[in-house]
Structure formats: C-alpha cells, structure tokens
Design brief:
Radius of gyration: 29 Å
Number of domains: 4
CATH superfamily of the largest domain: Vaccinia Virus protein VP39
Structural class: alpha/beta
Shape: elongated
CATH class of the largest domain: Alpha Beta
Distance between the termini: 47 Å
Amino acid sequence: MSEITKSFYQQAIDDGHLQLIQSGKTEKMRYAAVNVAEKWSDPEEKVRAAYYAELIYRYGYKPECIGVEVTVPDRTPHDRADLVIFRDAARTKPFAVIECKRDGVSDAEFKQAIEQAFGNGHAHKFRAEYIGVIAGQTRAFYDCTDKFGALEREANIIADLPMQYGKPEDFKYYKNAFPKPDISAVTRDDLIKTIRKCHQTLWGGGRLSPPTAFGELCKLIFVKTRDEKAPRKKGEPYSFQIKTNETPERLAVRIRALYEAERAREPDVFTETIKIDDITIKNVVLHLESINLTATDLDTKGVAFEQFMDGFFKGDFGQYFTPRNIIAFAIQMLDIQADDTVMDPACGSGGFLLHALDHVRRSAGEFHKEGSAEHFDHWHSFAEKRLFGIEINEEIARVAKMNMIVHDDGHTNVIGNDALEPLVTIGQKNATFSKIIGIDTTTGKRDEAKGFDKITTNPPFGAVVKEELHSYLKTYELSRFIGKGGKDEEDPEDTTADSKAGKKSIKQRASVKTEIIYCERIWQLLKPGGQATVVLPDGLLTNSSLQPVRDWLLERFKVQAVVSLPQFAFSHYGAGVKSSVVILEKRQIKIPASDDEAIFMAMAENIGYDAAGRKTYQVDVLSEDPEKQRIEFQRCDLFDWEVLLDWKPGEGNKPGQWSERHRHVVPGSGLIGQYVAFKREPQSFFV
C-alpha cells in the first residue's frame, strides 16, 4: 500500500467513515454510511477498505453513494458486488461496479474477476457505466456503456475510474497533479508482491525459463525507471501506463518504442529487443504502472529484490547466487573506498557489486551531506566509472545489470563474456575496462603496472576448463602445473602429464579445474598491491596434489587472511563444497615472498544461518516501540547486523510479525573487528 493510500485509509478511520469494531472474538470493518460490517481478517477486505477511502478522498464520491456488498439483480441469489458507486444517495442508479481481490492474485484469477465485474455491471436491472477490478497495485477499469459490445475487453479499457461522475481521463498517473493520482513509493512487502506477480505473468507456467522471464522483466523495469526519471512538467502524464481505449497491440507498440529509444542511448545495457507478446506486456504494465521505483526507499528496494532473488536462485540457478552474509563479510574485509576500481569476474546476479556499491554509498555520508550533489557524485561516480562485473551467462548478466539499475545506479559495467577469455577480447567490449587494466586492444600490449584495486568474487568451482573446448587454456601458466607424480590425482581426465618424469613434467593439461584458472585470472586483473577476497574450495588450500598451485599462488600473492566457512555455507543453494574466504594481495613487481609474512586465520561456525537456511543469530533488542518499530542486533561469528524492523499486522488467523526495513553491518564487530586489529599489528594467529 502506498503512503498516499495509507493516508486516505487513515483519514477515513479518523473521520469515522471506516470503523474497526469487535464482534465477539471477530474484528470487523464497518462502513458507517451504509451500516455494513465485514470480517477484517479477510485479505480482500483490506483491499476494499483502502479503495473505499480512495473513492471518498481522491475521486470525490460521497460515502452515502457508495454501496458495500450490494446484491445484484438478475444474478445468482448470493451474487454481490464488492463496491457500487451510485449516482444518488438512495443508491438506485448504479454508476460503477468494483470488484476487490486480494493482492497477489494470478493473471487467471484477475481475468476471472474482470468477467465477474462485467457480469454484475451488465446485469439487466443494473446497467452500470463503468466497472473496475482492484487487486492491490494491479488495477483495471472498463467502459461498459452501450457504445461497446458486451464482450469487448480491450478497446473499452480506460486509464482510471472517472472522478465525480465525469468522463475518463486519457491517462491515470500524472506528475504532481493532485487530486489526479501520481505514482508513489511502496513498502517492501508490496514491492516483493509486485515483482512476483510480474515474474509469474512472464514465466506463464513454464513458457519461459525463470531466468529468461526475469530477463524480460528487467527490460520492462528498465523502461519504467527511465520513464520515471524523464524530464516532464507538473501535470504531465507518465508514459509507462495504459491509456484509455488503448488496445494491448497499441500499448505494446508504444512500450517497445520507449524501450528502443532508451536502448539506443545505452546500447551496452541491453542488446536484445523485447521478446514477449502484447498481452503479457499489458499485464506487466498493469502491475508496475502505479509504482514509483525511483522514489521507493533504497533499502526497501534492496531487501525486496534480495529476498526475491534469494528464492529465485535456489536450485538450478544457485551457482549464480552467493548468500548475503558471505558477500557482506567479503566486502567489509576488503573495505572498498570510492576511489577504488573494483571487479567481480564471476558476478552472477550482481550480489558482490551491489554490496560494494552500498558500502561506498553508506560511506558517502562521512564526507558529504545526505542529499547533496556531492553525496550523489561520491557513490554514483564510483558505480559509473569504477565498478565492474563479468558474467558468462547472458541471461544472468541481464539480471545483474537490472539489479544495478533498480538500485539507482543508472549505469552498469556488467560485461557479458567468459571471464577467462583473453583480456583483449573482454576489453573490446568495454573501453573503460581496457583502460583500467592497461591493455591496448589493437596490439594486445599490456602495462603490467595497471589493473583493478580490488576484486571480490565467488568464482565457479567443481567444474573443469577443457582445452578441446577452450583454446585459451594453454595461455595460462596454471594449465601446466605439476601434480603429485606428474598428475592431478583429483582430475581423472589428466592423462597428459608424464608420470615417470616427476617434477620435470610440464606438459599441457587437457583440463584444469575452474577455480585454479580463476586464481590466475584474478592475479592478471589486479594491479601490483591490489587486493582480492575470493571464496575458494578447501581442496585447493589443503590437497597435497595441488601443492604446486599453492606454491604458484604464494609466489605471486601475499595471503593476508583465510576464514574457514562451515560445510553447509552454500548447501541452501545447492552446493555442499567446504569453502573458505581468502584475502590475497598481489605482490609488487620483482618483490619476492618472505617466510615472515603473517596470516590472519579464523574459523566461522555460526554464520547466521544453518543448512536449511534457518536463522541462527544471537538476537539482542536495542529498542522497541511495541507494534510499531524495533531495532535489534543480530550477531554471528562473521559480524553483527543492526536491523530496523517495522510491525506488520497479521491477516486472517495469522499473528502480526516484524518486517525488515533495512540492515547494515556494525563496524568493528565479529571477525571483521579482529581482522582490523590484526592489520594494525600483523601476527599469525588462529581465531
């Protein structure tokens, strides 16, 4: 529910038009003007009460002219209309019939509700002029007068219900033109519901794969956010909405044109056209048109999208998603600053990039006043010029790009490419990337003193890079590392080394594990003195057959920290490999390793969740305003979260509960604080 809708509802409560009353053990909502009381625990009742308040205060209809639970003549004996606007206080001349459904109904249920509304509106002794269906943020209105056929459902759509018995406006949403509606910010729960409705519409029960469906949603959200930010005068309508008497075909033409215009301005963000049909575009626009994503609080968007992605990337797509706690820990340990150049060469859905951006955005307040141009430039310049990702899966790369756009970046340097391909190939797709790593894409020459300041990543592991499929494998030094007895005992495909030659064997391997090659690529991407936080499988750190790989790493990196994660750290997302977070620093050119280098070593047992994803924090309540707001510390071995929660009343028989608004890491807490102390006085120890 938007803040404006909430205020209408509260105003109706304050003025006595709506009254919450106790009837025995049941709480009911009473509509005072017509003396009708309905069970308040019904989710549809909450939708009806909110819209009833809008009809009074936004649309200007008198309470005595709004019928509730109105029996419809000529229909089945128990068929009632949820709301009917009458032209007279005696409620004999119907003007509009409104059906109210719970927020989150499927497209099929919404369509069924439209038919129900038409049936009521067209009843022989009723003959309303307009009908509407309200399901939270998703709303549709139709002209059902005689100028349209009884079965027409497209050409007779109208942008909005007329105000005070007038005629329909061309559009519904206008910029700063009260009492005409404006798009508005929404709560986290409403945003999650809206995103899910959109994805369900696009997914369509399997017509598109989940990531393809989300990719198409990304394109439409891209158009939506750009339309919100487009310059327009006070009172001008927004473009991303359904126009009165606009068929799905005409709407789709308009939306596609908006998309292509924005795509032309930033061709690197999206490379493909919109590939969904006109009806699907119309339904997604219905879900999104009332929301102001730009005005919605950044923390609200962050939590909403992260929770949605959390569920979306389980199972088959778990490889593209790293749990929030692991990402936050890696970012905090790296302590990224606004003048750092940052890269994730296996960025997946963009989790590390978003947390890096959020870290810099929060630090902007230490330098500039919140809301100032300097504050905006502090973090936006970082996002636009210094934050990069590479993702091999084009569909997932689009998800990462959309994540950045939704989080107010407005720009993205997510490169859709295999991160292990030659740097020249990647550089040809992004000129700024080439400049940072100092490579000439024409000659292939590289300035070895250049590279990224920070890399933070969870590279894929468990698979192998095969020479027969990837000719670039032979360009990596680690494609020729010597295993025990000349072989890698863990790679059954390693048949190229000469077992009799022992340590003299340097033959090219037919395949090498992905995590090994990624280590070398990270070294190539970093500048001398640059740092990386990398999630690595423990096998790479401990298996005797991989000692030559560790020797290679120690020659080129200074290992600053190794934090062991529990076996179940990634099992919630379909991966069960025991892993550690490793912090590496690329050695300066021609400066050898030293045996005296201290390493911070720690083992994290409680990382905030268990194998099933259940929370395992130690929770301390800092402050609480009962059934309003609460602040708590959620402690684990990695760090402490400070979490702000709002009270969400229960629906039906469900009790109320606390709903997260936003959270941030408490500086200096947990292992992060111990690592900070270690850096002041480096001495090897184990926590």
